[in-house]
């Protein structure tokens, strides 16, 4: 898959393109309905398959939120789309100036210039100054074919990135994994921590999670991938309140049956179940007792369900 960053330039693509357009954070089941439509239309018409997204969350660029927290990094999205056989990922370099252009200018600058002849979007897609463009605007452009995808429902509610974030904030891992169509995943480099886990018999890999949206503070059953090998583990997210509390949440994983130095390694953490919220213990012995119970619970879960 070729990744092309857009600043309004014409893109040299000979084959006509069918592209979905949206922010696509999470690439959840609802988003994948658009991806599937792109594949269907492209196969029928002989078009190249593409997605168009933005390099930054529009609300962040416009100052309506103060921090960017992603369900999927750009690299995550690239990997997922490559697996689906997408040919191009167009990434609009989003600025306040881009947000202020008219819908008609947006169409010419980003769709026509990329040789896009068929657009796939959600029923609630908006674009252009003051969100004045919508699917009807696209349909009025006679050079474009347009497919509009209805909302995708799970348990009587629309699947959305905000709904997934709400599940993360509540530790509802199994429900959010249903919405994603895969396990919630955080990828990052192993960095040095305070080594408290080593002192109490539960050594942990401390992960630099960058701008990922963290689940609620607590303990989780996870799978960990290191150099292509899969391990079972126990993940803790939080401030380590039993000891001197941290300034920001940490993400640490105790990897079962593993004893290697992996500082600097990039690892993958997949979340399967939420055990309990973070709490402060009276002493380290009480903490160790609870960690033993947590570990036994996680091991039994994976043995029972063979996931």
From TrEMBL:
Q: What class of enzyme is it?
A: transferase
Question: Its pathway?
Answer: Cofactor biosynthesis; FMN biosynthesis; FMN from riboflavin (ATP route): step 1/1; Cofactor biosynthesis; FAD biosynthesis; FAD from FMN: step 1/1
Q: Report the CDD domains cross-referenced here.
A: FAD_synthetase_N
Cell wall biogenesis/degradation recorded as keyword? no
**Reaction it catalyzes:** riboflavin + ATP = FMN + ADP + H(+); FMN + ATP + H(+) = FAD + diphosphate
Q: Tell me the Gene Ontology biological-process terms attached to this UniProt entry.
A: FAD biosynthetic process; FMN biosynthetic process; riboflavin biosynthetic process
Per the UniProt record, one Pfam family is Flavokinase
> For this protein, what is the EC number?
2.7.1.26, 2.7.7.2
> Keywords in UniProt for this one?
ATP-binding, FAD, Flavoprotein, FMN, Kinase, Multifunctional enzyme, Nucleotide-binding, Nucleotidyltransferase, Transferase
**Does the keyword section mention Protein biosynthesis?**
no
What Gene3D superfamilies does its record include?
A: HUPs, Riboflavin kinase-like
Report the residue ranges that make up the Riboflavin kinase domain in this protein.
179-303
One GO MF term attached to the UniProt entry = FMN adenylyltransferase activity
What protein family is recorded?
Belongs to the ribF family.
The protein's name is Riboflavin biosynthesis protein
From which organism does this entry originate?
A: Longibaculum muris
Q: Taxonomy-wise, where does this protein's organism fall, top ranks first? A: Bacteria, Bacillati, Bacillota, Erysipelotrichia, Erysipelotrichales
């Amino acid at each position: 898959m070729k990744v092309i960053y857009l600043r309004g330039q014409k893109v040299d693509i000979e084959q006509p393109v069918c592209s979905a357009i949206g922010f696509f954070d999470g690439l959840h089941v609802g988003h994948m309905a658009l991806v599937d439509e792109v594949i269907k239309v492209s196969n029928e018409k002989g078009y190249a398959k593409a997605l168009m997204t933005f390099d930054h969350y529009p609300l962040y660029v416009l100052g309506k939120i103060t921090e960017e927290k992603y369900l999927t990094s750009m690299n995550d999205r690239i990997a997922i789309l490559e697996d689906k056989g997408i040919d191009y990922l167009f990434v609009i370099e989003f600025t306040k100036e881009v947000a202020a252009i008219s819908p008609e200018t947006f169409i010419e600058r980003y769709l026509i210039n990329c040789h896009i002849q068929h657009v796939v979007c959600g029923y609630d897609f908006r674009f252009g100054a003051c969100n004045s463009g919508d699917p009807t605007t696209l349909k009025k452009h006679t050079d474009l074919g347009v497919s509009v995808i209805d909302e995708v429902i799970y348990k009587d509610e629309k699947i959305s990135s905000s709904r997934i974030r709400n599940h993360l904030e509540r530790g509802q891992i199994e429900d959010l994994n249903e919405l994603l169509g895969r396990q919630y995943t955080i990828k990052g480099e192993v960095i040095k921590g305070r080594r408290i886990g080593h002192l109490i018999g539960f050594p942990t890999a401390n992960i630099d999670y960058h701008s990922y949206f963290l689940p609620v503070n607590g303990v989780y059953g996870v799978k960990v991938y290191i150099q292509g090998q899969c391990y079972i583990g126990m993940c803790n997210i939080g401030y380590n309140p039993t000891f001197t509390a941290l300034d920001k949440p940490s993400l640490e994983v105790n990897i079962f049956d593993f004893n290697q130095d992996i500082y600097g390694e990039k690892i993958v953490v997949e979340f399967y179940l939420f055990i309990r919220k973070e709490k402060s213990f009276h002493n380290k012995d009480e903490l160790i007792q609870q960690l033993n119970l947590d570990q036994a619970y996680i091991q039994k879960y994976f043995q029972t369900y063979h996931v």
